[in-house]
Specification:
two-stranded antiparallel ribbon, 1 helix, 11 strands
């Protein structure tokens, strides 16, 4: 019986440590993903950022128009551009900085963007780091078919 009493405090200590590290629920997948410490490098773009994003506040993108941005685990594409996410750094919950090595209309580029999701993950602020063009606001595209993207997840 004493052996079991010793194991309970040890189990509580482990559970407390796990709670301190933290778990965040992905707003889109419903699965738990370990929360990332600010400044930590991530292996891929977190799933809450994946999918299609449009400039239309309604989230309904005109069928004939190109989507401004489609995001997958390690790939990003937009209208006449695309590339690989070569670095992803956490700035906090639902806030990352992505370095993209890509192409646009025959030219190659390296771009750094900060993506900040709204609390309900329905919109995302995109800030071009080191570029005077400023920020844009994109909205999660509704009714988007993943087959429209060359990348997918």
């Amino acid at each position: 019986m004493k052996k079991n009493l010793i194991q309970i405090p040890a189990l509580l200590a482990v559970l407390g440590l796990l709670a301190a590290v933290g778990c965040a629920q992905s707003p889109t997948s419903g699965t738990n993903e370990a929360a990332s410490a600010v400044g930590s490098k991530l292996a891929a773009i977190p799933s809450q950022f994946h999918g299609a994003w449009t400039g239309e506040p309604s989230g309904i993108h005109p069928r004939e128009a190109e989507l401004p941005m489609v995001i997958a685990s390690r790939k990003v594409e937009g209208h006449e551009w695309g590339g690989d996410a070569i670095s992803v750094v956490s700035n906090g919950a639902n806030d990352i900085t992505v370095t993209i090595e890509g192409w646009a209309e025959g030219d190659s580029f390296v771009s750094q963007q900060r993506w900040i999701l709204s609390p309900d993950a329905s919109s995302m602020q995109v800030i071009n780091v080191g570029n005077a063009s400023g920020a844009s606001l994109l909205y999660r595209a509704r009714g988007w078919d993943r087959s429209q993207s060359a990348y997918g997840d």
